[in-house]
Structures are given as C-alpha cells and as structure tokens.
C-alpha cells in the first residue's frame, strides 16, 4: 500500500479550458495540442521526480482537469484539496463532466 | 419583466450593509474593510450602487471554491446578476458573443474556438515580436521630449499593437484602432463618445472578419472564421463579439498593470535594482505585480442558480456573488505579509486572472508583455523616475478596471 506506487498524471480533456497552467507548472509532463489547444500528458507512467510539479499543476489548473493518479485502485489527488486544503470534498464539488462535444 | 428582487436580497434589512465597490485606501492598498471582513465575515452581504445587493467574498479559500462551483452562473444578463451600476439599455445587445458571460455548454463551445490561439507555445513564439514593439516604444520615448506620459507612450501601445498583431489587423488600420480603444477607456471623454468608440470598434472588427473570410491570412481572426464555418456556426455577431473580447480583454487590463507596475517598481528601488541586475527574476516579479494590483477585481461576479451552502451562510438561488480576486490576493493565509510587495515571493496562487472555467484566456500573453516591458524598461532607462509626486498621480479609483489615467515620467 505504501510501496512507491506507479503514478500517472492525467488530464480530463472534457474539462480542460486551455489556460496552460499545467504546461507552466510541469513543462516536462504536459503540453498543449496545436490542434485544439487542450492539454495532454507527455510521460506515462510518471517519473517519481516529476511528481511535485504535477501536484503544482493540479493546484493551479483552473478547471481541475489535472489529476495525479496513485497506482491501481488508489484514489486520485486533485490539486485544490491535496495541496491547499481549500476545496471541500474533491469529489463533491468537482465539475460535472464537461458538455459532450457536439 | 420578472421581479425577483426578494430572492436577490441576501438579508431582509439592507439599511446598514457596507456599500460596494469599496475605494482603495491608497494607490497600493485595498480598502481596509476587506481585511476586517475576511477576518469576521468572509462571505458578507453588501449594497451595490446599482440598487441591487450581493454577497461579497473576501477569503482566498472561499473565492477559489466558489469560482469552481458550477451552480454559480456568469450570465451578466441574468435579471438578478449583481451589476455594479445601472445599465444602459443597449447593454444586452453589446453582450452578444461575450465569452465571460456565457455558461456551459455555450461557453465551452466558443472558448474552444479560441484556446489554441493562446497556447503557451504559441505565445512564447511571440516574444521577439513583443520585444520589437516594446523597443519601438522606448526608442520613441528616448527621441521625444521629457517628461513623457508613460501611459500613452508605452502602457497603451504595447498591448494594442500586440493584440492587433494577434488578430491580424492591417498595419494601416492600427492608428484608427488605437485611437478608438484609447477613447473607449479614457475618462476625459464623455460616456456617449466612449460608447461610440466601442461601437466603432465593433463595426470595424465585423468588417474585418468579412475580409478575413474572403482573404484569409496567418492570424487569429482568419482561423476563427474558418473554425466557425467548420462547425456550421454562422453567427457573425457572436464572432464579432469574440474578436472584440480579444481586443479589449487584452488591452486595458494589461495597460493598467504596466503603468501601475512601473509605479510600484519605482517606489521599491531595491527590488527594481535586483530585477535590472537579474532579468530571470522577471516571471516571479510579474506574478507578484499581478497579485499586488489585481486590476480586474470588479469583473468576477456570479449569480447563483441554486441554493449554495458555504462558510456558514446560504447563498440563495438568484442571489448575486462578488468574488473579489483582489481581496483573495491579499489573504495572509495564502500570502504572508500580503500588503508588502515582494518580487521573490511565490505568488502563483493569485487569482488576478480569475479562476475556474472563465480564467483569462490571454493570461500567458499578458505575462509575456509584462515580462518584456519591465525587463526592457529597467534595462534601457535605468534612470527612470516619476516626474510628479506619487500622491499627484491620477489613479482610476472610480473605474471598473483599476489603473492610472496619466503617468508623467522622466530619466
């Protein structure tokens, strides 16, 4: 359970608003697509040393589209709750899934 | 007309509510009431000059949480939206295509037409062009008489030339656009002239969009027209609204932060000297100046679509909410010693660009412009100083967007 789990950085592209905060926070992990401007993950699984930058990205993402997934079966951290304690229950006030593309 | 006044009032007795906006205590600091409210009642009812009232939110924690809450609508045309002042009749019409006032799914659809114009990579590639614009302005300052008004010589032209570049405004139209935009934001012109300037810009951009449709170039408007067509949307008014938003959204706010940031750096010569000696400090300094001034404090309002319980209060359906990013940005719980300008602090959690799905689309362009302006200004004009005492500067205390009307400098 506490063994160094394989972590993954995840971007929910339905929720992403293209502010580019994750690219600024973790340029080695995230980039924005030239096609639609939405963010995507460059490295998977996530190298351990890049974990802090992904936490930073999750905190700064204005749409809470960035998550750090900890191993299989474990919960995901969202920035607002994990880093600042400002969010209430991350699941409770999370944005509903974005509108489905037309 | 639906009369929803009852449901829009946070409390029954509105006689003794604090009034909003609260004027800044001094050019650099917010009204002292913000700190008191944050301590005692971070979500509190206030009276607006429009006759409506609303909840004012002043803590970083609550502002951030509410920015993320999908039960709060950004629809400025909602009958109980917390407008700050009585509104002109033509207002709703002008709001067509105004992205900041859209809710999902409409907001998502239109924002996504613009996102890839403002990616971090695309903005980074603009640095040489922004540098050329800034150098051109400073060349003209050096060649001209002193003192010079830094607002007109640098703060306004940098964002307007940059934005015209992004949009693909032909070079020969630049003077017209700059003239109209300057009238639009200037207090010396009466309201009807300013409204006319806004109409002129809308008309100009509408015509330009038609031209871009016929003869596309390598610019945002041409791609916007193409993308709009590709999804089968053919609403010229909406497109014009988006173009207008790009133009004015990146204009006054950036200009204000350039002018105010210059005053702040001149008032803190030690920090200015550090920045001059080490330009790699610029990104941090820019974040701190954005936090410190939070010029767009009065534009992040919402109206609640459902009852929302938060921080011991219930925001009822239909009630207005003012998410004060300026107050949040001075919250000592997140920014220790918040009234002190410190270019070394980690200010990245500021919400000067808002937060949530409406967070400023052009924020990385604004960061680039501010970075280049401050680095270049300090390097090229090391003897820069105010030509009048700071107390005599005409700050925009009464404007929606904080700033300075005129900034005489010399060197």
UniProtKB/TrEMBL annotation, chain A:
Q: Which cofactor does it need?
A: [3Fe-4S] cluster
Note the Pfam families from the entry.
Answer: Fer4_13
Q: Which residues form the 4Fe-4S ferredoxin-type domain?
A: 7-35
Q: Which domain of life is it from?
A: Bacteria
- Classification via InterPro entries: 3Fe4S_ferredoxin, 4Fe4S_Fe-S-bd, Fe-S_cluster_ET
The UniProt keywords, alphabetically, are:
3Fe-4S, Electron transport, Iron, Iron-sulfur, Metal-binding, Transport
Compositional bias per record (Low complexity), positions renumbered to this chain? 71-88
- What is the role of the protein in this entry? Ferredoxins are iron-sulfur proteins that transfer electrons in a wide variety of metabolic reactions.
Protein name as annotated: Ferredoxin
* Natural source organism: Actinacidiphila paucisporea
TrEMBL record, chain B:
Does this entry carry the keyword Iron?
Answer: yes
Its domain of life reads Bacteria
> Which GO terms fall under molecular function for this chain's record?
heme binding; iron ion binding; monooxygenase activity; oxidoreductase activity, acting on paired donors, with incorporation or reduction of molecular oxygen
Q: Which InterPro entries match?
A: Cyt_P450 (IPR001128), Cyt_P450_B (IPR002397), Cyt_P450_CS (IPR017972), Cyt_P450_sf (IPR036396)
Keyword list (alphabetical) reads: Heme, Iron, Metal-binding, Monooxygenase, Oxidoreductase
Q: Where is this region: Disordered?
A: 1-24
Q: Which residues form a coiled coil?
A: none
| Pfam families recorded | p450 (PF00067)
Q: Which CDD domains match?
A: CYP105-like
Q: Which family does it belong to?
A: Belongs to the cytochrome P450 family.
Q: What is this protein called?
A: Cytochrome P450
What organism does the UniProt record list as the source? Answer: Actinacidiphila paucisporea
